[in-house]
Amino acid sequence: MSTTVEIVEVGPRDGLQNERRPLDVDTRVQLIKRLIGQGARRIEAVSFVRPDRVPQMGGAEEVMAGVPQMPGVSYIGLVLNRRGAERAVRTACTEVNIVVPVTDEFSRRNQNLSVAEMLDHAAAASQVARGAGLRVSVTLAVAFGCPFSGPVATDEVARVVQRAVEIEPDEIAFADTIGVGVPRQVRALAALAAGDDRVRKLRFHFHNTRNTGYANAVAAAHLDPAAGAVPGGVIALDASVGGFGGCPFAPSATGNIATEDLAYVLRGEKVPVADPGLPDIDGLARVGSWLGEQLKSVPQGMLARAGDFGPRVRAVDEEGAEK
User: What is an example of a GO molecular function annotated in this UniProt entry (predicted)?
Assistant: First the structure.
């Protein structure tokens, strides 16, 4: 059995939250519509955080009021606490993504709370979301390395995972918030799920800060479901159109892996992709270029500049001979 990848488009949230130029509500809604038009079906659309802390994410309710309601399209709202979840459930969000750092130093610097206290907030937020019938993801931030306390040991992440699964989320996500991870860590973190029935689904969030994001994504896509580290045989991978994004609370945390570049490598690796399948790669690259124009910034994804290649290449059989 092969691992199937589900692509989660985070451009409208993580792609915008660290950009200097905030986009208005109408432009953010237009971005989401364009992404749906190119095949995006699971979209992290907004963040219910304080607009004075992250002004780029202001107007979350207005954005959600403007997005299309379509069968098969799900919208994720990022939250940090009960208050964020209470805002999310009053909108068209179908999921909440609750973020919990794995190091006390990162957590205290950004939320003035310990990891244990953030887990308590996560439990309260989950209760609100569940009561409204929304799915719940818990993302463990700085799971690969912390900008303040340095490398993060797998055992340290494991302790937070054990608390996080008590919340009974639908999904546990490991985030390389500052882009320091390597494939060995992907495999080590995935192994934390092996044999634990409380982990229903795994998700990874990679940044390409040090040019390892795509290597990490390939490592996640090639995890062996037979080893028990891929619950249900499906793994979710976050990506941002155009490679935009970063964490405003983590120094030097540059862009996410680009959705179009991820789709290109998954196609080349012949990795199964969850329904409805691979998005339109050239179309996504055009959306990335359009977004760059709105932000007055250059896309970090390579296909936005180079374009797709596969359709112009003759099919080659397994022995390397032209068909």
Answer: hydroxymethylglutaryl-CoA lyase activity
